[in-house]
Amino acid sequence: MWRSVVGKLWLTIIGLVTLLLVMLSAFLSDQVEKTHQRSQQESLLALAHKIQHDLEKKGAKRGTYLRDMLRISELFDTYMIVLGPDGAAEPIGVSPTIANVPWQQLLEKTDIDRVLRGKTVVMKDRVFVEEDEGMPFPLFKEDILMVAVPLKKGSQIEGAVVLYRTQNQLQSETDIKKWIYYSAIIGFFLTTIFAFFLSTRITQPLKQMKKAAERMAKGEFNIRVPVRQHERDEIGDLAATFNRMAEQLEELVHALSHEKEQLASILRSMADGVITLDADGRVVLTNPPAERFLSAWADEMAETLSDDPKERLPLPLREIFETVVEDEQEHFGDIEAHGRTWAVVMAPLYANEQVRGVVAVLRDVTDERRLDKLRKDFVANVSHELRTPLAMLQGYSEALLDDIAQSPEERRELVQVIHDESLRMGRLVRELLDLARMEAGHIEIVRSSLRVSELMERLLRKFHTIAREQGVQLEGEVEPDLPTVYWDEDKMEQVLTNLVDNAIRHTSRGGRVSLQAMRTNGSVRLIVQDTGSGIPEEDLPFIFERFYKADKARTRGQAGTGLGLAIVKHIVNAHGGNVTVTSKVGEGTTFVVQLPIGTPTDTTRERDKGRG
């Protein structure tokens, strides 16, 4: 309590009032004492002068007068001693109350001499009185007020009159002092109560504001301090100002919270990754794409990470960060991390003209870079695929024009080459157009009821002659009781034609190509398997891309256009199925096409909207 405002204010008021009461009591006591003493002195001095005047005139009646004055003075608590010329007390001139008290204890020798020399003596002193011979020390009475005036007869000193009053007779002065002290004590207690009441009255609003400030520190910005309109003093104005501050702070916090939520929503909805780093390279803020990026990087580099926060960043990102902090300029570039390409734009953040961190925006441009590469490869591949047949057409046509062929057989051979190359060019253009329509989402699927066994028999008859010429054994196996499926017959025949043609072309003489069909969990699985040269493992992820070709040595000079497998994938995806491949170099390749059976309601014409 003593450390609180109430305690400090209360103690301050009590201390000040106590000091004031003590000083006032001391001052009043001193003034009362001086006033009473002066009054007593004046009274005793007037009485002494009266007795002096009367004794100087009484003459023969002096004894009677002294006895009368002794009795009268005792009525006023005053005692009298009449001294002779030699300083000895006259027997009749001593008050009976102190007849057993040596008068020498009441008046010092020097004072007697002064009185006998004609001086009036006024003094207040302490006198010691021996009341009992058996006492080891004398008893005393304080505050003996005494006056002494000389008795004269003409110009000659006949003696002196001494009047005094003891402490018992000065008791009224002591009573007044007591009442002063009692009043001071009462004033102290009243001031204590008043000070406590005043302190509580003043500090109660302060306590309310303190509690309100504590609740505001915990986030309760809607708290308000009650303000009494009839007590609009400084504290009331302070409470009103506090309420205005709380209201403005609440509005500011709400605005900041709204902006923070809006910024967080924007960051969460961004497709680009945003990372905020401090000057030491610690991650301060991220959005979900950036978190996925950092998480994938941390999982990939978990064993090599150190305690340095900058070491936890991908090395290319760390290099850009250090460059931005050093140059204090924006930098951008591409980085490779966990198999993907990210475009990074990193800019410094300033605080008091010093770099306090950086903000980095990361965009996954893997697909864009891949598309750029595909476009470049497309142009290069188309140019390459068209260059050979065009060159052959030009060469053989010039040979015909120059009549190089001398016999009809030679001319027929040249025309046959020109015809084959033109067919190849037509097939290439046709496949390019089909693939472009498929990739644009304009592939049309015309479903109809189809028996898989009939489709397989037709494929075997088509490639029987080609397989025999190539020295390849072609086999087919269809599981009994396969259900009727609802596929686009022409396009599925195109799929199987591409797969079987590739299998025969990549299988050496004496090899085997098998075509199988079976039912699995509500779908039909078509398998094309060969014992050819196989596909390297590093080429498997790319074989369904257009114009992609594996080692040309495996084709025995019968390379295709590189578009067949891309068309296969698009057609299978358009049917709601999927195609997979497994291969081992020197042992062969297996393509598996799995398609849903479909229902009679799917026989209408459908347009694929971008599958695959």
Which shape, going by the Cα principal axes?
Answer: rod-shaped
The unreliable regions are 134-142, 552-558, 603-612
SS-based class: alpha+beta
The number of distinct helices, counting runs of at least 4 residues, comes to: 12
Main beta-sheet annotation: 5 strands, antiparallel
Order of adjacent strands in the largest pleated sheet = 2-1-5-4-3
Got a strand count? Answer: 19
In which range does the helix fraction lie? 40-55%
Cα-to-Cα separation, first versus last residue: 79 Å
Average pLDDT? 76
Radius of gyration: 65 Å
Strand percentage lies at 15-25%
Domain Histidine kinase: 381-599
GO molecular function, one term: kinase activity
Domain PAS: 259-301
Transmembrane segments: 179-200
In summary, what is this structure?
The protein has 612 residues and is an alpha+beta fold. The protein has helices at 5-58, 62-75, 109-116, 171-217, 234-269, 288-300, 315-327, 366-401, 408-439, 452-470, 489-505, 564-574, and strands at 79-83, 89-94, 121-129, 139-153, 156-165, 273-278, 283-286, 331-337, 340-351, 354-364, 444-446, 448-450, 473-478, 485-487, 512-520, 523-530, 578-584, 588-596, 605-607.
What does this structure look like?
The protein has about 600 residues and is an alpha+beta fold. It has twelve helices and 19 strands. It has helices at about 5-60, 60-75, 110-115, 170-215, 235-270, 290-300, 315-325, 365-400, 410-440, 450-470, 490-505, 565-575, and strands at about 80-85, 90-95, 120-130, 140-155, 155-165, 275-280, 285, 330-335, 340-350, 355-365, 445, 450, 475-480, 485, 510-520, 525-530, 580-585, 590-595, 605. Strand 4 and strand 5 form a beta hairpin. Residues about 135-140, about 550-560 and about 605-610 have low confidence and may be disordered. Helix 8 runs antiparallel to helix 9, helix 10 (about 450-470) packs parallel to helix 11 (about 490-505) and helix 11 (about 490-505) runs antiparallel to helix 12. The strands form five sheets. It has a five-stranded antiparallel β-sheet, sandwiched between helices. Helices cover about 50% and strands about 20% of the residues. The protein starts with a helix and ends in a 5-residue tail after the last strand. The radius of gyration is 65 Å and the shape is rod-shaped.
